[in-house]
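Please produce the structure of this protein holding flavin-adenine dinucleotide.
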Amino acid sequence: MTRGRALVVGASHAGAQLAASLRQEGWSGEVVVIGDESALPYQRPPLSKGYLAGTSTLDELAIRRAEFYDKHEIQLLRATVTKIDRAAGRVVLSDGETLAYDGLGLCTGGRVRQLSVLGVDLPGVFYLRTFADVESIREAALPGRRAVIVGGGYIGLETAASLRALGLEVTVLEAADRVLARVTAREVSSFYERVHRDAGVEIRTGAVVEAMAGDHVVRSVVLSDGEHVPADLVIVGVGLVPNTELAAEAGLQVEDGVVIDDLARTSDPQIVAAGDCAINHMARYGRLVRLESVPSAGEQAKTAAATLCGRERPISALPWFWSDQYDLKLQIAGVNTGYDEIVLNGDPTRDRDFSCYYLQHGRLLAADCVNRPRDFVMAKQMISQGIDVERAELEASVGS
Ligand code: FAD
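Below is the modeled complex.
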């Protein structure tokens, strides 16, 4: 059935790609993308990078121009889906309207994890997930002001770099004993701590936030030892919660994401899912993996579109990710969970380019490549194809 109505819930990286791919795969009926944000589907990664630093505009963030959707007869509908009625094959919108579907794609992404401490609702405390969030932050991010960032993950660190570029004093508070603790080796964490300190950012690890204090606006962040860290604005970046409620209430299988198979089908084969909201069993890692990355959202969305059009295009690409901070482009190939050894090429205590390879039982699992695009491409290839590589080769390869 490629002549009925395909509905896509969520108009961001996954939703926009799913709609475009439906046309490429030959879906000839209606394609309607329902999203609850006011802008055309836009790229989220620049929000903590160029868009926050003021070097790119919202127009430049558009994933595709408005004409693309017109030309391919993809209807963008601004609305919130509140329910999926699987028995009737339709969704319900917040105004009570219903829309029938012949194929349904869930691309609902995620929302920021809220910090549940006293004072977190004070004006001047922000989260960062949407362009609207960044617009509010930018109004408050005046040169010379003191910004405190709660959370030393990629988004927190990118935000720190962008706020430094805007001339703010920046402190990063991280509860763990190092930044990026969940995702990188200690050596890579130390590298980023050094780089940020060199740029004038105060990085404080082991800093557990207990409250925000202020009167009509936030004035300080209170740590568990009672210390008040002065703040004119606070940005909280402590992770993401996948938007799975619609799927769960419709009786679809949900874990830490809407469970999909390698054809992006949920437990209802008429419904596919893709992007940050979806979790799938990856044979490569032998477990369910939910990825929060643009390349994965795109890959899953292409698979989902093929599936709705009756074709099989299994999800197979190696996960990858990137992060831009200052002059540093980090590219990550694979997922390093379960590594038992690392190999460094370059000296992260001194250089601004190096690669960190993660091995498990002697096999290459993942790589973090900082300003080393060639290493990244090679690592991606080796991991994807399962090519055996010796430790000495990784140490000796000349990076670029
Ligand atoms: P989302 O982008 O979360 O979009 C989901 C959309 O669905 C949202 O617009 C949401 O409002 C809408 N929606 C949800 N429920 C409903 C409903 N019921 N009805 C209607 N609409 C609904 N990834 C990288 O690979 N590299 C990076 O450098 C990088 N940097 C990032 C920086 C920041 C600041 C952020 C926030 C993310 C970054 N990411 C990065 C992650 C990347 O942006 C996400 O992986 C990507 O946005 C996932 O796309 P998605 O379409 O699955 O979900």
